[in-house]
Design brief:
Strand content: over 45%
Structural class: mainly beta
Mean pLDDT: 75
Distance between the termini: 54 Å
Number of helices: 1
Largest sheet: 7 strands, mixed
Order of helices and strands: HEEEEEEEEEEEEE
Shape: globular
Helix content: 10-25%
Low-confidence stretches: 7-21, 158-165
Number of strands: 13
Number of domains: 1
Oligomer: single chain
Amino acid sequence: MSKRIRNVMFISLFFIAAGCASSQHFYSGTHRPGEELAIIKPSRETWLFSAMQIDVFPTLIDGNPTGTYRAILPSYFVLPGEHTLEIAFTGFLDGPAVRFKDPTPMTFYATAGHIYETKAATVPSLLEIPEHGGEVKVGFWVEDVGTGEVVGGTRITDSETLTVE
């Protein structure tokens, strides 16, 4: 086997292992097949030319902490039914992070086989927030990836004004 093929196989195995390690089960009982579960996944947006990255992730699911923030954002498997989330938003802009946390838990109903993504937006955009803080409008919501429907929280147009930490 050539060295190039071995390197490609090693890198592939690394990403497969990272993908397997990047999911957590937030339900008790025996393991269930994927079609019986719903998935809550964080969102990440990166703009290469502005050196900006935005991560939106749950910090609590049904009152249980999701763990510490990390480079690989995990997906969370939950049973169908009502779930309550608290969501955080971290933006990196060529330096220190700007972080917001929704102080109000949001509740939504999860359906088996559906994927839900945590979302956030700011007005003004992160690029326009003054360097040393200021007031900004932040909206947090949960969106059904398949339908695009907002199932929990509020889009930016109805959000309250929060202060940058």
